[in-house]
Design brief:
Elements (H helix, E strand, L loop, with lengths): L1 H15 L3 H5 L9 H19 L4 E7 L7 H7 E8 L2 H11 L4 E5 L11 E7 L7 H13 L1 E12 L21 E5 L5 E5 L7 H7 L2 E7 L4 E8 L1
Parallel strand pairs: 1-2, 1-4, 2-3, 4-5
Antiparallel strand pairs: 5-9, 6-7, 8-9
């Protein structure tokens, strides 16, 4: 079933490309009112500041680049950014939004991709949660291959939000007994995706794959892990 879901997941993000930013910018079904929205943006800024604190790097690899909300930040700290995503639709939005000559875009299914270079920084946002448990070790091994010794890894993703205001108002609650979740588009189409949540135990998992990392949370909505390849 997992392989079928992963194909559905790609189809979902391709179909969702034009409305993806409604989630990040708290529009429409994702608008939970001024107070909640303000908290969301404040926490997002906390994560942006943590990424900026990585400092200047030569090359950065962005996995599952999406519509460019973090690509813009990467261009401020990296001389050259390679941004990968399985969806050509989101890459086009990303390119139009970021408008940077130092970003190279590549379409790639990350479950079938292998790096052809090592980078000073490997970054991913809201991606690790979509990697099923049986593929996590292989994926993190691939991330390690893409990271120079002494290079940095930075990942950010969603906390299990107890207020459920991270998601759309018409999305069902997450089932703690399942890794699968149903997502809806504005037009009512439904897709099945993988959705995992991580806590401090991620540090030990990353250590097994050659990263010395720290885990942080912004409050209610986001976690991030930042570390060095050993």
């Amino acid at each position: 079933m997992t392989d079928q879901v992963l194909q559905d997941q790609i189809a979902y993000y391709r179909a969702r490309a034009g409305e993806y930013d409604e989630w990040f910018y708290r529009v429409g079904r994702y608008d939970w009112g001024a107070e909640r929205n303000a908290q969301w943006f404040a926490e997002a800024e906390t994560v942006f500041n943590a990424l900026r604190a990585v400092g200047k790097v030569g090359t950065a690899l962005e996995l599952a680049a999406g519509t460019g909300n973090f690509t813009k930040e990467l261009t401020s700290i990296a001389d050259h950014v390679v941004s990968l995503d399985a969806s050509p639709e989101v890459l086009e939005i990303n390119r139009d939004k970021v408008k940077s000559a130092n970003v190279e875009y590549r379409q790639a299914d990350l479950f079938n991709w292998q790096p052809d270079a090592e980078y000073d920084l490997v970054f991913m946002s809201f991606w690790l949660s979509h990697v099923p448990p049986e593929k996590l070790d292989g994926f993190l091994d691939t991330v390690r291959k893409a990271t120079k010794v002494g290079g940095r890894v930075f990942m950010v993703d969603s906390l299990r939000d107890k207020t459920r205001t991270s998601s759309a108002s018409n999305h069902a609650d997450y089932d703690p007994e399942s890794i699968y979740h149903t997502r809806k588009l504005n037009d009512g189409q439904e897709f099945t995706i993988v959705k995992m949540f991580y806590d401090e135990s991620l540090v030990a998992t990353l250590a097994k794959h050659g990263f010395k990392a720290e885990y942080h949370t912004s409050g209610e909505y986001f976690w991030w892990a930042s570390g060095t390849a050993e």
